[in-house]
Amino acid sequence: MPVTSVKIVQINPSDNNAQVQWQSDQQANNTATTYISRNQADLGDPTKCITGDASAQLPAANFMVNVAGLTAGTNYFCLCEADGVSSPSQTFGTIGVAATAHLVALPCRPGDDGNDDGGADGGTCEVDTGKKIRIRVATEKIGAPGTRLSGVSVNFAIAGGSGSGTLIHDNAISNPRGVAKDALVAGSPGDVQVIASSLSADNQVVVTVTVDK
User: Fold this and answer.
1) Does the domain formed by 101-212 have CATH 2.60.40.10?
2) What are the tens digits of pLDDT across the range 64-120?
3) Quick one: DSSP state of residue 201?
4) Separation of alpha carbons 38 and 91, rounded Å
5) Which residues contact residue 39 at a Cβ distance below 8 angstroms, ignoring those fewer than 6 apart?
6) I need a surface site. Which of 30, 31, 42, 44 has the fewest CB within 10 A?
7) C-alpha distances in angstroms, 204 versus 11, 164, 180?
8) What is the pTM assigned to this prediction?
């Protein structure tokens, strides 16, 4: 018998994913897809939705897929289909905080402190062994380059390299000028990669510090 109705059983969202379960009243044999979009009018259009294909589970009447690529802290609409019959749409929200900032690496400065939150001109990321150098990252508003945000928590970590060093802090809050700063104490000569990331940012940046003898 053909499928005449489809219903969404459960949606379990995380930050960037959602597990969707749906059911048809009869066994489906041809198609089984879930559609997710921020715009309800786009549901059912694979060119405008994030989709989850359950065709590998056919023939069946119960389906489950994990849909990736979602944005944290965002509301979505979901629709599921089986053999061309669509379910009523449902809304859900991903957990977490939606990104608001974009990180931009600024040139380094010598020492571990200073009023140096201006533009990106001048300065290098080169330091002698045993000396300190400031890692500076601007927190800009997404979609508005040059507009900086204060109060953004930025994490710093050494990601690798042929040299060595020690960070004074693991985390910094961007100041009123929209700059988060940490300092590296240079160790053995070579390159040291410092990665800056934030739960509030849509990207990560890597700053390479060259440690001289």
Assistant:
1) yes
2) 999 999 988 889 999 999 999 999 999 999 988 778 899 999 999 888 666 555 544
3) B
4) 9
5) 48, 77
6) 30
7) 30, 21, 13
8) 0.60
Tokens 């005449």 sit at which residue?
4
Distance CA 60, CA 79 (A): 18
Number of C-beta neighbours around residue 212 at 10 A: 12
Amino acid 61 reads A
**Quick one: tokens of 27?**
């066994």
Strand order in the sheet with 153-160: 126-128, 205-212, 190-197, 153-160, 171-173
CATH architecture assignment, domain 6-93: Sandwich (2.60)
Amino acid at 174: S
Question: Boundaries of CATH 2.60.40.10 in the chain?
Answer: 6-93, 101-212
